């Protein structure tokens, strides 16, 4: 069949410009010069005889024809990428790249992963610990488990778990007392994850002056945060789900009980181009395991 089509390279360059509405960002994504992107898009417009972009000062906008072509281009390029992944993975078992938060990786995933690998002996799984939210255009992963302080109403995000954060510490910090009044809060050092915002939010829920959250040590790793609680550095906002065993064993206590708490929400994101059966199987296993652990 003799299809009269413009250059696929030009279509790919236009699709990137159309998504970003920027020649600069498209050039960065494609790892080429801005001039090369501009040249390809201009050639495409000349080839089809239609203006696809309106070039304004320091920005571009899509024309109605450009919007129509962008939608089709995204769909077709995604289909092509998925097909290439499928036919290449049929000859070699492609790695499954899972991006996951460090605490969930240590406490939830790793204890269960051996069961999956025992049943899928040819599976080749790469784990990346990350706290970033999904970014389709830049992240190099197939599946991503992440959390949000807000409930996300997006069909691309599969809800996995609703967790609660509780003030948690080593019992030595309270000299063995396991239940305290909120008025005692100001007597304890705090340990923060990344910044003071989580403790500030908790203080507001507890009707405590948020300025009291501005003290103590800041760490940038949830696993280190848990360790800080275990060795008695101070109060941490600990995960009710992932620190449950240590709380039940008495290694950690929740001196202010389970109120007030605030919730965080875990989601699973699947990259649109990740269509291989091995990825689909692993995705379904993750969802099933979360459902089982919630019972």
UniProtKB/TrEMBL annotation:
Highest taxon listed in the record's lineage: Bacteria
Biological processes annotated in GO: DNA-templated transcription
Alphabetized UniProt keyword annotations: DNA-binding, Transcription, Transcription regulation
Pfam families attached to this UniProt entry: HTH_1, LysR_substrate
Record flagged with keyword NAD: no
Domain HTH lysR-type: 12-63
PROSITE patterns: HTH_LYSR
Entry's Gene Ontology molecular function annotations: DNA-binding transcription factor activity; sequence-specific DNA binding
Keyword Oxidoreductase applies: no
Family: Belongs to the LysR transcriptional regulatory family.
UniProt name for this protein: LysR family transcriptional regulator
Organism of provenance: Pseudomonas putida (Arthrobacter siderocapsulatus)
Lineage: Bacteria, Pseudomonadati, Pseudomonadota, Gammaproteobacteria, Pseudomonadales
């Amino acid at each position: 069949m003799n299809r009269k089509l413009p250059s696929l390279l030009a279509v790919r360059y236009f699709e990137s410009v159309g998504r970003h509405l920027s020649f600069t960002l498209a050039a960065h994504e494609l790892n080429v010069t801005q001039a090369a992107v501009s040249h390809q898009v201009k050639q495409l417009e000349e080839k089809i005889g239609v203006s696809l972009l309106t070039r304004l000062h320091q920005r571009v906008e899509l024309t109605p024809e450009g919007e129509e072509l962008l939608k089709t281009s995204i769909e077709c390029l995604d289909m092509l990428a998925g097909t290439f992944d499928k036919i290449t993975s049929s000859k070699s078992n492609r790695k499954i790249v899972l991006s996951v938060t460090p605490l969930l990786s240590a406490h939830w995933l790793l204890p269960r992963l051996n069961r999956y690998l025992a049943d899928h002996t040819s599976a080749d799984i790469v784990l990346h610990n990350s706290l970033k939210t999904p970014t389709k255009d830049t992240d190099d992963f197939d599946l991503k488990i992440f959390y949000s302080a807000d409930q996300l109403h997006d069909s691309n995000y599969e809800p996995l778990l609703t967790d609660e954060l509780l003030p948690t510490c080593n019992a030595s910090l309270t000299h063995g007392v396991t239940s305290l009044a909120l008025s005692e809060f100001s007597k304890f050092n705090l340990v923060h994850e990344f910044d003071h915002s989580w403790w500030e939010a908790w203080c507001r829920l507890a009707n405590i002056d948020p300025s009291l959250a501005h003290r103590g040590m800041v760490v940038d790793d949830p696993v280190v945060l848990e360790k800080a609680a275990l060795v008695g550095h101070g109060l941490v906002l600990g995960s009710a789900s992932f620190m449950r065993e240590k709380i039940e064993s008495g290694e950690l206590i929740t001196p202010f009980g389970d109120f007030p708490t605030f919730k965080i929400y875990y989601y699973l994101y699947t990259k649109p181009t990740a269509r291989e059966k091995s990825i689909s199987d692993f995705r379904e296993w993750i969802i099933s395991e979360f459902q089982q652990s919630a019972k």
